Amino acid sequence: MSLIDLECVRRLLQSEEPDATLVFVRGDCVVLPADEVDDAHKGLVIAHRDELAARLPEGGLSEEALEDLATRLDNIARDLGA
Hints:
This protein is α+β, with helices and mostly antiparallel strands. The chain contains three helices and three strands, in the order αβββαα. Strands 2-1-3 form a three-stranded antiparallel β-sheet. β1 and β2 form a beta hairpin.
């Protein structure tokens, strides 16, 4: 079972928050503005949208590319001990 799935990635990339951050909170991926991530959860930040956007190909992502990104972020969450 994935911790970070395709829907998590979509919510992060489509968030209207300028500093959207993907955080793993109590078993769920949550997209929050960076300034709303409290000290207890700063260690469970999976990705910032700006970091991902800088690495994305121009013209958008295919479903396959989104799935690959979700897998990579899932691995990061697991490495953090989520």
